[in-house]
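Margin note: ligand = zinc ion.
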Amino acid sequence: MIHEGDIERVVEACRQLPEPVGNYLVEDYLTNLMATVVDFQLQTTAVERALEHFATRVRPYLTGLDDLADLLERWPADQAGNTALARHLWGYDLWTRAQMLRELVDYFTAIGVTDQDALKRWAVTATFDRDFKGRVHGLGPAVFQWLVMRQGVDTVKPDVHVHRFAARAVGRPLSDAYVVAVIEAAARRLGRPAHRLDWAIWEAGRTQATSAGAQPTSAGAQPGFRHELSAPGVTVDVNEDRDVCTFVDDDAGYVAWLAAHPDGYVLNHERYPSIRYLVLHRAACATMAPRDGGDTRTWTSAYPKTCSPTRAALADWAKANTGGPPSPCGTCRPPD
Ligand SMILES: [Zn+2]
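Resulting structure:
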């Protein structure tokens, strides 16, 4: 049972929290698999670099689970093979995580959770004890909780920041189950989604850890994941008054925009924009447009483009969507 006084104290502490800035849903099935085995008990920077490596060097070449399964087959499932596989996927010798990935792929394949829609459906009804415990050696309840939260399940992940927050509020350390229950109860009382409280607590905790000079550890922590901007084929004016638009799976729209704005600017980013890969180009940059005659490359699939006539608008967009400034392209050298 949860003590009424604890709920009240947590409610009061939650009232002090600002709304979260980030959005930590992950809409890509393969990225979710990677995050599940990589994003726990590692330094945040290692997690971010490993997932950036996957996003930029591996993910663009995979269409789905079948491609990943073929990739896993290239190396034997022993320590040497898993080390080579881990280096390929993440740029790190995380060989035990590579073995977990194999087991996770086998398990999800066996139960038909083979794409993002199926993963979302599974996450809604899955419980740790029934659907995850013991399926992949080394993956525990916090990993499960974080996996289903990335699919939008409204709960709380009892990581180090959440524990610290709750312990400070009620005046004593709490168990994982109690932390989840008391914050969910506080969320109901506040009329706020539990996962948004979790995000807000995590953001506040990360800020404090950083400003205190402490090295934040992952502990299943949430890296700079961001939500997908739009459904494929849909162009969204994310900020109409400032004329910023993002092209996703819309090469024709993108090329037309370039033609109409030769003095504009283009941000190149992943489908889930993040500071991990965010490059600012001039619209006239030779690397950002198809060459004349028979250029069959795609321009807005693996790397959507966010465009604007002004550099300042893209800087604002980058800050709002990724928290940081873009890196300038070394070829076209946009002005600071
Ligand atoms: Zn450029």
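Confidence is low (pLDDT under 50) at residues 212-242.
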